[in-house]
Write a structure and sequence with these properties.
Blueprint: E1 2-4, E2 17-19, H1 20-32, H2 35-42, H3 46-60, E3 65-68, E4 71-74, H4 76-104, E5 108-114, H5 118-133, E6 137-143, H6 146-155, E7 160-164, E8 176-191, E9 211-214, H7 219-230, E10 236-240, H8 244-252, E11 258-261, H9 262-267, E12 277-280, E13 288-296, H10 303-315
Parallel strand pairs: 5-6, 5-7, 9-10
Antiparallel strand pairs: 1-2, 3-4, 7-13, 8-11, 8-12, 8-13
Length: 322
Amino acid sequence: MNVRARGGGGDAGAPPAWDIRKLHILRTLRERETVTATAEALRMTPSAVSQQLTNLARQLGVTLLEADGRRVRLTGAAHLVLRHAEAVFAQLERADAELAGYLHGEAGEVRVAAFSTAVPALVVPAVLRLRRSHPALDVRVREAEAAEAYELLAAGAVDLALSLAAHAPSARDPRFAVVPLLTDPLDVALPAGHPLASSPGLRLADLAGEPWIFGGSGPWSEITTAACEAAGFVPEQAHIASGWTAILAMVEAEMGVALVPRMAAVRREGVVMREGVVMRELSADRPYRHVVAAVRRGAEGGAGVSRVLSALRESSPSPPLP
């Protein structure tokens, strides 16, 4: 697809051609940094990538790349071109979204990437809701943590990516639009016989001297550590686990205490039903985590994506503990 623009450059007497495919290659080079990585991402050969970018520079009449040791780097002209190209890509996404809505109406396909806890707690209930209200809308689900989900979204392999807000793209990233979905409170899991299991007004600070169970690295380790530090103490990590089944089994065995997101504890069958575990709401210093959805910028108004976002919001309220 060529978009003609006025101005010099290119063949004599002809305006430059803004070639969308070649602009996409240039955009990918900016993201991947090397010609080889760009070729791998686009399933091209490095020589084909170089040739396409050389042709684009000739069409536009500017220098787009310059040598940087054994690599190449984008020139100021290339960054200027991409700044305007982002608006073109966003407009094309809007055009695709409107066309899909026009052509498919109640039908279509929306591909969703979501982190592990969100799949049973948010995505599955949303799919069931849509199956009743829009049976011709096909939602395809892929479990993926934040880094992979946003790579898939950028590559066009999914249409919607769910993650914790702390791992969402920056608002300055021109590729994505980020939409808040829910605020999920964190509850504490205690052994049933713990002295604080029935204590009124339980605060996170009351558990400063307890052994804690959480992951050795990654988002949940960061969330637990940050919540405890905000309450005035550094948690003693007695045991390391990342799965809720393993964590709550250790809590039941009186090996320690753990923070558990309400979305995970209440919505996942079999997680909160352990007889030896008591889930307690925290008082004034209750921590939260925030869940967001992201789409490619310009696609947020698409009929299918909008329906899925609405279904996710309707499925998202975290109910109180019994």
